[in-house]
Amino acid sequence: MEGGLKAFNSLKIDSMKNNKILIKKIYLQDERFRISYFFDNKKLERSIAESGVHNRIWLVKREGKLIVASGWRRIQACRELKIEEVPYRILYNLNDLLVFRAVLLENLSIREFDVLEKAWTLRNILKFGLQVQEILKDYCLLINVPRSHKYVHDFVNITDLNHNIKQLIYKKRIPFQIARLFLDYSEEEQELLGPILGSFGINKIKEVLELVAGISKRENKNPLVILKAKELESLWLERKLNSVQKADKFLDFLRRKYYSNFYRTTKKIEKILTELNWPKDVILKPYHFFEKDEYSLEFSFSSQKEFKEKINKLMNAAESQLVKKLFSIFTDE
Amino acid sequence: MNKALFFPKTVFVTSSALKYETTKQIINNLSSIPVKVIKESADIIPHIEYSVDPIKESKKFLLLDVQAGGFVKPCPCTPYYIGCNYYIINIDLQCPLDCSYCILQDYLSVPAITVFVNRNKLWRELEVFIKKRGGKRFRIGSGELSDSLALDHITNHSRDLISFFRKKPGALFEFKTKTTNISNLMNEEPSENIIISWSLNTPTIVKQEEKGAPSVEERIDAAAALVKKGFKVGFHFDPIIYYPGWKEDYEGVSVMLMESIPLERIAWISLGSLRFPKNLKKIIKDRFPETKIIDAEMITGIDGKLRYFRSLRSELYLNIINAFRKHAEGKRIPFYFCMESSEIWKEGLKKEPRDKKDVELYLLSRGF
Fold it and tell me: Which tens digits make up the pLDDT trace of A217-229?
């Protein structure tokens, strides 16, 4: 690495000023240095449309072809705007790893990488021949990735996720700790999950991924079996519900399956309340996950009369011997 | 230990620990192991930080250091659930065993198994602590942030701790271990205020989740040997884990225990189900991808830790308690719950401790 860094320090950059190259002369099929596949180019396009490309594209020569080291987004924007030429510079005498390091430093000086860019960065570095241990020493701090073998592997594997899932990670700005949960799912499972998760925020995405994985491990079934459960078939076909409502119902299905004992207990409470003829507009709230034999009540009233009526109904319920059942739901089987 | 005794790959000694007698003794006990003098514990970090599993790697090293803070502390327990007013001595940190559920993976950040060598400070601190208690009895132990006996062949802690506590009748001292490293103890005269406790689980859990630890049979055999020698013993079923077949397995262990150890020599049997801070779940998943212990129905408890839903905990406890009672011929078994709610106490043991002091009183009555 030291020798490499020396070469890097004497980085020779083509000194041609204001030279432009026709985009069609660049070999764009070679994406070895590319790390951004998902981005919003609108702002950049507007800027280029108004004042042109300010920063030169970095190119390197490989097998007689000029390939892009840095500037993918600028090229994309120019093509979108039908601009045929871009200013450029060529990097000489550097191997792929050193070119890539230069590209990273250039990019990192102006912005932070998102999860996917970090993932592709690590994948590229591995491809350029560095061992994980060297990556931990020389690159993790640079791109703000925890120095752990497991994390590096998980980041790299994120690049192999289904396209829609990667798009979701980009769009929802899903952090790494949640993005890595997708690695528990097969391509087919990811395909199914993509559209459902699109309706959710980050917390619910995390919950769904954890619940499906948890249920599948507990029941010793593939996540696919959970995702294709019979109970869900009619839900996906339901026309009256929009995608958000369907996704919510799906989450509810998972919660009931994962927290089966909790929901069974909730059902027991509902049964007791029915037996007690409990006033419908008075909400009985159990303690957090029934950890304590404590309940609280919630009700509203808009007149003394209404207040009295509700209290009377509650008094009637309180007189019943059945109330005791609320405090022995875990012992009465 | 039936598994090989722990011997480190390297012994690191901080320069400030060099002058202590304990350091010399430990180095002498490890004469064939390379010793490196370092300025501070952080100097070990480069030896572990780039390894595939830094926690596992850190367990290959022994660090002899000076305890700059306090040795004696109240057991951290957990908020909102009922504790037992236990005190801990942090003479060692970390453990050579590698149990998947171990809280120390998240709780400690030491770069090596650490032994604090400034024992005179420990004795002084203990004297002050005992004096402050003004004759009030208390329970104290050394197995909270380490295994009390896993390093005993290297450190001889047990010899010194017994010698100290033998003269302190107000203190009930507990060694807590999963090992069978009892050679030092076998050479000591028992004392009624010294309890040797084992953490027990089912053979399935030991095999799958307690890497490097002796089998349940070996642990119970070690306990039986010490009972024969005259020591009182304790057992901790913690963490009790919910998995297919748990009922039969825990009953099997209870039978094994009741057949091997006379009930009157058991100071206590604690019961605690699997629980851990949320952050540990990630660590367990990363370090032990095959484990299934994190897949049962867990909720976020009042203390913010993940634990089984109440009905599962009740089911686990009641079945284990009943399994023991079936074989106890009507004798009272000294159970207590670790970090549980008063509701669970009531359901499982028909007791309603108001707080940790109630639990402490109950356990002190069992110990003395």
Answer: 999 999 999 999 9
Which H/E stretch holds residue A304? helix A304-319
Residues of B in contact with A147 (CB under 8 A): 49-50
Q: Do B53 and A214 touch (CB under 8 A)?
A: no
Q: How far apart are CA A85 and CA A79, in angstroms?
A: 9
Q: Which residues of A touch B51 (CB under 8 A)?
A: 149
Q: Alpha-carbon distance A298 to A278, whole Å? A: 13
Question: Which residues in chain A have Cβ-Cβ distances shorter than 8 Å to B347?
Answer: 330-331
d(CA B315, CA B323): 12
The answer to whether B50 faces chain A, any CB pair under 8 Å, is yes
Whether residue A286 lies within 8 A of chain B, CB to CB, comes out as no
- Other Cβ atoms closer than 10 A to B262: 11
* Among chain B residues, CA nearest to A133: B50
Question: Is-cis flag, bond preceding B239, omega within 30?
Answer: yes
Suggest the residue from A130, A140, A255, A261 to mutate for an interface test with chain B (most B CBs closer than 10 A).
A261
How far apart are alpha carbons A4 and A95 in whole angstroms? 9
Of B50, B310, B342, the CB nearest to A290: B310
Q: Which one, of A111, A106, A109, A139, lies nearest residue A124 by Cα?
A: A139
* DSSP H/E element including B88: strand B86-89
Return mean pLDDT, chain A. 92
A264 touches chain B (CB under 8 A): yes
CB A330 within 8 A of CB B310: yes
Closest CB to A261 among B286, B292, B309 = B309
Please write the tens of the pLDDT for every residue from A178-195.
999 999 999 999 999 999
H helices within B30-108, ranges in order?
45-48, 54-58, 104-107
DSSP 3-state of B165:
helix
Q: E strands within A12-161?
A: 12-13, 20-22, 57-62, 65-70, 85-92
Residue B154's Cβ-count burial label (10 Å; 0-12, 13-18, 19+) is: buried
- Taking only the tens place, the pLDDT of each residue in B171-221 is 999 999 999 999 999 999 999 999 999 999 999 999 999 999 999 999 999
Q: Which residues are within 8 A (CB) of B292 and not within 5 positions of it... i.e. 6 or more apart?
A: A217, A218, B243
